[in-house]
Amino acid sequence: MQLAHGSPRHSEHPLTPGARADSPQWAYSAGALEKEVYLPGDQHYLPLGSAKQYKMPEACWALEYARGNIASMMPFGVMDTLSSTVDVWTLAQTIYVSAKWMAYNLVVLGKV
Hints:
- The protein is of the alpha+beta class.
- The protein folds into 2 domains: 3-68, no CATH class; 70-108.
- It is 29% helix and 25% strand.
- It has helices at 74-85, 88-108, and strands at 3-6, 12-16, 25-29, 36-38, 44-45, 52-56, 65-68.
- The strands form 2 sheets. It has a 4-stranded antiparallel beta sheet with strand order 1-6-3-4, with no helix packed on it.
């Protein structure tokens, strides 16, 4: 299975901690002609405001961690779900849990 993924420009700092099988992850920065190769266990940091294209050529998976304005990512996740995975049940659960904790942080903890 091959997977290619592009990252839109977000206002948070995504980090791919690099939990992968026996295959590397390839990445290309916008306009780059040379690929970046991340081996199993490597951390792949995406700086604020940058965009990259990813490819996982063989048996490979990655776990993404993001911090910052996570709410700004929600429209991208919704559109991805509706246009590719069509997993509406998981989308509904994600929106419910996200809205619940955002409201809790805003109302109860006073975080903006």
